[in-house]
Amino acid sequence: LDTLEKWVTEIFSEIPNNGLPKPCFGHLTQPFDTPEFHKLYRVVPVRKVHSLSITWALPPQEQYYRVKPLHYISWLVGHEGKGSVLSFLRKKFWALALYGGNGETGFEQNSTYSIFSISVTLTDEGYKHFYEVAHVVFQYVKMLQQTGPDKRQVIWEEIQKIEANEFHYQEQTDPVDYVESLCENMQMFQKEDFLTGDQLLFEYKPEV
């Protein structure tokens, strides 16, 4: 560490500090023309696959990194057990897989907006009923909204424990990639969360 600190000091100490504040993009929190955003786009794939993707543009969520509300919602949406969306769609022979979530970086989450997407891999039969598939997804999201998270802290704690285990037992990454990741974290998180802010869940706040 002493050697690394010496190198960093030698290499970066000559870079001048211009004293400018961190750029703020708070005035750009409505990047999408919402009425125009309510559209269905049909795209012909290169390979033979049927996929339905539903995308929502949300207010920026990065300030809630200690709560990770979109991670919580994606956990429920992506659940595959009894009572899940995918379980229902499989019984109808309409879907093979379902994924929902937010990448928590870059295009999907930044200081102006957050994207939340649900992608369903359809069967040939499901493709014929993709309107019904979309309806089922919206029904499930509406049910989650109406039920609320107040009685679901057990689920949040389960997610918290799983993420903590993955963090503590993760494989060693390439040092260059790790440094790059930490530098990005320094722009978004409090100092004490530089190492953990992008992975761990810290606070349960149902209102968020």
Automatic annotation (TrEMBL):
Keyword set includes Nucleus: no
SUPFAM superfamilies: LuxS/MPP-like metallohydrolase (SSF63411)
Domain spans labelled Peptidase M16 middle/third: 167-207
Tagged with keyword Nucleotide-binding: no
A GO MF term: metal ion binding
A Gene Ontology biological process term: proteolysis
Domain Peptidase M16 C-terminal positions: 2-153
Keywords: Hydrolase, Metal-binding, Metalloprotease, Protease, Zinc
Protein family according to the UniProt entry: Belongs to the peptidase M16 family.
Protein name: NRDC protein
Gene: Nrdc_0
